[in-house]
Amino acid sequence: MEKIVEQGLLYDFYGPLLTRHQQKIYQRLVYDDLSLNEIAEAEGISRQAVHDLVRRCTAQMQKYEELLGMIRRFETIRSDADALENMAGEDTDLPALRERIRQQARIIKKDLE
Prior knowledge:
Blueprint: H1 2-14, H2 20-30, H3 36-43, H4 47-68, H5 70-88, H6 94-112
């Protein structure tokens, strides 16, 4: 399951950088949950060709993530937003809450640099 989630995130961020053919095959595997055999049959190519294409695309998108770090930054900012949401639910005096929000805002700004 974790591999599918990783592949989905990679595709969400870097899929547009793949060719149309690569996008089509990758979407069928990750989003349509088709097997390699089902994709191969539908596309008129071998199962091995589908496997190799998916492996190359995944490696290519992982390289993009290493270089650009968009997923890592997204997850960091989402975590920062969760921290803000948790603060809003706490029963804290207003001046202390304001300071904690300011600190969290500084963290978010730093994450965006």
